[in-house]
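Morning!

This is the sequence you dropped in the shared folder:
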Amino acid sequence: MTSDPQLLELQDTLYASRNPTRRWLHCTRRDWIIDTLHRYAADRFESAIEVGPGSGIYLPVLAELCDTVIAADIEMQYLERAKELAAQYRNIQIAVDDITATALPMGAFDLVLCTEVIEHIANSTMAIANMRKLLKPGGLLVLSTPQRYSPLEIAAKVAFLPGVIEIVRAIYRESIIETGHINLMTARQVQDQLRAAGFTLAEQHKSGLYLPLLAEFGGRLGLRTAQALEKNLRGTRLDWLLWTQYYVAKV
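The structure's back. Tokens below.
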């Protein structure tokens, strides 16, 4: 396991960013995930696992909707945060586990939540296949990941070039570290991997339009512009411009 204190600092910053567009991009994703969990948990899940819980923003929601929740990760900082939450929610358990070589019991879970994780895993095919194996018959996967060619991901590659990142940090005046995205995929690639693992797609969605410079300097007007354009792009051939792709997949 690794340990980088900047990881939690970054995740805590995202949902309360002073930049309106940055805050909206992340809060929109959070809200869609939470709403989806509630919609599919009408009868309460018996057991759930979150693969890569990050700062733990979804763990309290899962604890309320599920009898037993496993927070599984290989990153020490995230597991330490999960331990703090487990002290408040007695049905949360901690597991040190690599989803590409998982030691967790197969067919043991009603729900797998995996949001903003597979872009950090080189072998996402194996990760998704193992998530399928963790689920009971009729189980549910809720997954999100960035879109490969979205303006935000392309801009991120430029932002971390030597000499540029210092300017970006001066503009935002808050935590910004490299994304660590080593496996960005198009919607077609993600869908193909889900189907190859034996999933049936029940729902899909896309959100989040980043407009370079307007996001940094446009303030609330820039945000309203991005929101309006996002609505017009969703469901069209240009929706690859939206940052995040979401899936609800069933076994």
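Headline: Strands lie at 45-51, 66-73, 92-96, 109-115, 135-146, 200-207, 244-250.

More detail when I'm at my desk.
O.
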